[in-house]
Task: inverse folding
């Protein structure tokens, strides 16, 4: 449930691995390492080296995983002068495959299948090549998309030695993460995960932050100040804010004080924006100068507030929140605060739900 809700909250279902051919999945061996359950160096369909997981050296790839050895190797980039005259440098005999043994997203039978490491659904030939590195001698070749819309092309991308070093680093970081999330002391667990998060984010980006948020959400009250800091830290990036909002929402009553402190600041900001409009639209004022936050920022905040599972007492705190009540008035009365077909229209709908006590904890 937690993973499904976080996917919904951060919009993972529109990421490149699930997108149309206009934006194809990109190759990133660090993200792939983070998400892979198995990483193998394969030659002629057999495991030459097993870098992660329980597949054994010398064995043939199991059914479902062997299909990755049959992927069509893209040709060189047409942007490369004389590419049409050059033979494809890749034979396809040797490759490193980043695999995940898991249950596809939305599957009802819960059957384990082999997937590309960064995909959440069953094998997809179009995007599976983004979790493969072909090996020729010491050279590595991977895919990229030079033109959008357009297909994949092939490029040389470093050495096998450097790839193995990056994979080993990711495996070590995953071991630290697994150790931290297994700590039986919730406060220590939360502190360890929070300390690891910046390093993991540097290595594996968005998904590593998401994984930290999911584990932190099980740490109870100890996670609340961490999520609040992720949201409010001016030096933090967008993904920390999104995961922090999701986390506070998951904490419910344990996260309400942090969420209210954020609402205090946010509603004060929008009150200042309203005073600045002077006949202009909110679109003309936000996203520039001192008014850097845009309506979409407010939309995601209120959407997570509406998802909270709260006691009646804490619901009343939100229903009587002075800043939210004032924001409702501003959206109703100030010209330009709620342009047609803008995020502020949806913001007002969510706000009215909150003020009426219509929370959607299962959303």
Result:
């Amino acid at each position: 449930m937690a993973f499904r809700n976080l996917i919904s909250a951060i919009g993972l279902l529109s990421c490149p691995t699930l997108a149309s051919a206009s934006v194809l999945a990109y190759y990133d061996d660090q993200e792939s390492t983070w998400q892979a359950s198995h990483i193998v160096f394969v030659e002629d369909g057999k495991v030459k080296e097993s870098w992660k997981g329980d597949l054994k050296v010398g064995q043939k790839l199991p059914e479902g995983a062997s299909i990755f050895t049959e992927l069509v190797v893209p040709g060189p980039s047409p942007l490369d002068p004389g590419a049409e005259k050059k033979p494809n440098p890749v034979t396809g005999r040797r490759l490193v495959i980043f695999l995940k043994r898991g249950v596809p997203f939305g599957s009802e039978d819960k059957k384990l299948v082999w997937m590309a490491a960064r995909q959440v659904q069953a094998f997809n030939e179009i995007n599976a090549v983004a979790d493969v590195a072909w090996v020729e001698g010491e050279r590595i070749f991977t895919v990229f998309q030079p033109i959008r819309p357009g297909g994949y092309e092939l490029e040389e991308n470093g050495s096998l030695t450097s790839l193995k070093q990056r994979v080993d680093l990711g495996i070590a970081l995953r071991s630290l993460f697994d150790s931290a999330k297994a700590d039986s002391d919730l406060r220590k667990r939360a502190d360890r995960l929070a300390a690891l998060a910046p390093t993991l984010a540097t290595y594996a980006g968005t998904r590593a932050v998401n994984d930290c948020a999911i584990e932190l959400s099980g740490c109870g009250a100890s996670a609340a100040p961490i999520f609040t800091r992720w949201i409010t830290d001016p030096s933090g990036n967008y993904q920390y804010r999104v995961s922090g909002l999701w986390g506070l929402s998951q904490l419910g009553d344990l996260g309400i004080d942090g969420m209210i402190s954020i609402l205090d600041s946010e509603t004060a900001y929008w009150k200042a924006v309203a005073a600045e409009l002077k006949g202009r639209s909110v679109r003309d004022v936000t996203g520039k100068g001192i008014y850097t936050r845009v309506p979409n920022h407010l939309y995601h905040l209120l959407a997570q507030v509406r998802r909270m599972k709260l006691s009646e007492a804490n619901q009343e705190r939100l229903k009587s929140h002075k800043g939210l009540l004032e924001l409702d008035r501003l959206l109703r009365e100030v010209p330009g605060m709620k342009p047609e077909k803008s995020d502020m229209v949806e913001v007002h709908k969510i706000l009215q739900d909150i003020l009426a006590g219509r929370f959607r904890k299962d959303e």
DSSP finds 14 helices and seven strands in the chain. Confidence is low (pLDDT under 50) at residues 10-20. The radius of gyration is 24 Å. The beta strands are 38-43, 46-52, 94-102, 113-116, 132-136, 139-144, 153-159.
